[in-house]
Amino acid sequence: MNPLRIGKYVIEKPIVQGGMGVGISWDKLAGNVSKEGGLGVVSAVGTGYYEDGKHAKLSKTGRPVEAENFYCSEATKEIIKNARKICADKPLAVNILYASCDYGNIVKDVCEAGINIIITGAGLPTNMPEFAADYPDVALVPIVSSAKALKIICKRWARYDKVPDAVIIEGPKSGGHQGFTYEQCSQEEYQLENIVPPIIEEAKKWGDFPLIAAGGIWDKNDIDKFLDMGCSGVQMATRFIGTFECDAHENLKNVLVNANEEDIKLIKSPVGLPARGVITNLQKSIENGTASKIACISNCVAPCKRGEEARAVGYCIADSLSDAYMGNLDTGLFFTGTNGYKLDKLISVKELMDKLRSGRFITLETTPTLSAKIDGLISKLDESEAYKYVDGFTTTDSPLAKLKYSSLFGAVKIQEKFNKPVIATVSMRDKNKIALQSDLLGANDFNIRTILALTGDSAKASDQPNTKGVFEGDSSLLLEIVNCFNSGINYAGKPFKDDERPETIYPFSVINSFAKNPKTLLKKMIKKIENHSVGLISQPVYSVEQAKNLIEIFNEAKRSCKCSDPQAQLILGYFPITRFRTAQFLSAHVPGIDVPIEWLDSLRFASNESEEDEERVGMEMSQKLFNDLLELHPKIHVMTANKFELAKEIISKSIGQENG
């Protein structure tokens, strides 16, 4: 990641923390994000509530009276001062809604307080430079959702002889208010990845300023995607709510941690635009007519028309957001982006920034056993606590053609238990086109939408008498079926009805970790990438040199494929070896795996001494390999044949308690 330059300010890590009011991003969150090398953003919304409202004039009910107290000058300056105590002289920004009733005065207040960067959305800030004219060092950053909006801003700013110092491009997956209609929020042409290119082209006409993608950005993969498209940075908001330093009440954080995907919806807002948040008691009370009466005390935003729009939709946005800030679960309004349900625990800002920067992604393989229940395997995984150190799991599909519990049903139960994504393996060996599609539809209904396409082991090895493989095609056929589903049709080309089409499926593939002829491996990678695999999981690698060669071939495959924007990521397979006989078997009998002679010799010599020496030497080599791979390419798939304690030991020694 390259640093992000906004005006005269350099942000070490190109990650902007989105401004979140009321009270979600104030001094603690913004200060710590800037301290850790990102751009912390103070929200100017509702600062009258800061420090229990001691800086503002409050009504008898504890609400700031009028706009000058809701956007409290003294409190805003105090927040910025306290954020500065945390981040010192590192760049610090503030987000000011253009719809604010006191916009011009708020801009002047934050400039006087020594803010470096002002970000403004919720309307087109066509006269933004006017209010900051006396502070030329303050960088000005508008938020837009279309090339047309950027064109209007740049044309209007020309009269001030000014162009934006940066522009944030916000798509319809963000939390809070959207710059789109209800219908546009779900339409493909308005999604972030589709509005970025025309805005990039429009920006070229006006100057060389950085563009920052926002709305639904969740992890390193998302960051890389938009940096590769030509953006200079990303803005993330919801992800930062899941930090200890976030200024929000613990109840607000818990609402998101406990939310399911279906709990997050678009709702009506007094501002006149759709807003996204968690459906809680507030919406239910509006529906049944028990919501609190509306009295416009704070006069927060002009589009509400002094409470007129609030009464039309059934709630006051200023009061409801502030209630959420104070932890009131009955009357609070809890904004979040579409990915808010992915928050499952709180971590520190430092841990989050490190995670976003490194893009570490560790999955753990689970192999369902020959049983009518998977509870035993889940209990074993739970007791080992290995789940604390990984980002997700895979379930195998009757490997070696030996009968096991269903990979799809296993994925459902593991995902429900640990609230982490599961990649379910689907083998071509056992299913024809009908069964494959039927299984994908059923899995989709249970939110199992990440599928590992596998050709499968030969049926000749099966423990079931006279078993015949189906093999209507190799794994490429399954990838083609997934592509059809994602396009809204089945494999026969018949469209699904709008309310019956499956949610997006994310296909993964497997590749060899070694090939005597690298060109053969390259061709296979290109084929899988062109079939839209989002992840290629390799067989186990056993040296850094192997891993580097694999990464080099993978990068060449991405450059050579016909996809205009290949999304595939390489995930290195890892299988620890603690026995000489295991190393010997893998080396001699498993195609596509190369166990170095150094491993074989070391394990053989150790096995001649004792089993204890053999295991010790194997663990030492396996641990070092994992450490080296994690440093080289922090996307790793761990396979331990259900020895979850072993997985925990190896992973935890490398990453400590970060995921605990």
Please summarize what this structure is.
The protein is 39% helix and 15% strand. The protein has 660 residues and is α/β, with parallel strands linked by helices.
Mind explaining what this structure looks like?
This protein is α/β, with parallel strands linked by helices. The chain is built from 25 helices and 22 strands. It has an eight-stranded parallel beta sheet. An eight-stranded parallel barrel has the order 15-16-17-18-19-20-21-22, surrounded by five helices. Helix 21 links the parallel strand 20 and strand 21. Helix 7 runs parallel beside helix 8. The longest helix is centred in the last third of the chain and has 22 residues. The protein is elongated. The mean pLDDT is 91.
Helix content bin = 25-40%
Helix segment count? Answer: 25
C-alpha termini separation: 27 Å
Strand content: 5-15%
Overall pLDDT: 91
The secondary-structure class comes to alpha/beta
Low-pLDDT sequence parts: none
